[in-house]
Amino acid sequence: MKALNLAPTIVTYNTLISGYSQVGKSEMSNRLYEDMLKNGVKADILTYNALILGLCKEGKTKKAAYLVKELDKDNLVPNASTFSALISGQCVRKNSDRAFQLYKTMIRSGFHPNENTYGMLISTLCKNEDFDGAVQVLNDMMIDQWFPTLVLCLSCTRGSANVLKINWQ
């Protein structure tokens, strides 16, 4: 773009940052973020969410948590995607306690997980044998009109048959 004397916009940066984050290249995403700021392009919530997701995919949850604190400096607030990325990061690290805490914070903040976030959280809770937590999240999931897939149900039963106490009514 520079060769054509074109300045990248926030959309250009966000697309590239998101792409690198999706494939686990958070260092490249971070370089683009720094370049963006250097060129006077202000980050938005999509920028931060892409960076946070990339870090979480790599298990770098402390760096991701730091970025969440940076949101406030830019007068931005976390949204459902921010929480989903953070929950994902804790699930990658098999930290079901922290993932469940983030889930409760997400709900208290007025946001609802999507089907993938619900599934990832339930699966992690089951793998860590927190079946009460898994059942609570599953009930919330169904209240939100998301219904578990067969794959999710099977992943839960691998942990223990106790998960079958789910109320399907």
Q: How would you describe this protein?
A:
There is one protein chain. By secondary structure, this protein is an all-alpha fold. Helix content is 67%, strand content 0%. It has helices at residues 10-22, 26-38, 45-57, 61-73, 80-92, 96-108, 115-127, 131-143, 150-159. It is built from 9 helices and no strands. The model has no long low-confidence stretch (mean pLDDT 87).
Question: Which helices and strands appear, and what pairs or packs with what?
Answer:
Layout: H1 10-22, H2 26-38, H3 45-57, H4 61-73, H5 80-92, H6 96-108, H7 115-127, H8 131-143, H9 150-159
Question: Care to give the gist of this entry?
Answer:
The chain is mainly α and 169 residues long. It is built from nine helices and no strands. The chain has helices spanning 10-22, 26-38, 45-57, 61-73, 80-92, 96-108, 115-127, 131-143, 150-159.
Q: How helical, in percent, are the residues?
A: 55-70%
Q: Give the class from helix and strand content and strand pairing.
A: mainly alpha
Mean pLDDT: 87
Ranges where pLDDT stays below 50 over 5 or more residues in a row are: none
Number of helical segments? 9
Strand content: under 5%
Summarize the biggest pleated sheet: none
Q: What is the gyration radius calculated from CA atoms? A: 18 Å
What is the H/E string? Answer: HHHHHHHHH
Terminal Cα span: 57 Å
Please count the beta strands (DSSP E, at least 2 residues each): 0
The rough form would be described as elongated
